[in-house]
Amino acid sequence: MNPFEQESADAWCKAIGESETFQREGCNWKTHLGLVSGAKGILLDLEGGSCRSAKLLPAEETIRQADTAFRSSEETWRALIEGRESVVSAVMGGKVQVSKGDLFALAEYASAARSLLEAARKASGSLGRA
């Protein structure tokens, strides 16, 4: 799965909406979450345990519109989605950088964030890609 294509972003948003875990864990989370790799970004509009939209945007526009934005290589995003890398180790190891926002403010949504990656894994399978 190349997460930085609109088709993948749409499938991910749909999978987030179908995730019972995210519905439960993200029910109080209202945010615009940006994920950036190179010149591209995805802006997730998350509210009330659902994904309202996922837009592919230029990296700088993603960061500008996001409440919180993370930057990493496409390979690291793939490893996170596929479960080969944990978010905590990627952030602590410097593979994922916080481009905007406060990492500590997101701590209460750690379970919701994990469920976002699980939804991406499901979306990847629905696109027929590993």
Automatic annotation (TrEMBL):
InterPro entries named among the record's database cross-references: SCP2_sterol-bd_dom_sf (IPR036527)
Organism: Methylacidimicrobium tartarophylax
Annotated protein name in UniProt: Uncharacterized protein
Source species, domain of life: Bacteria
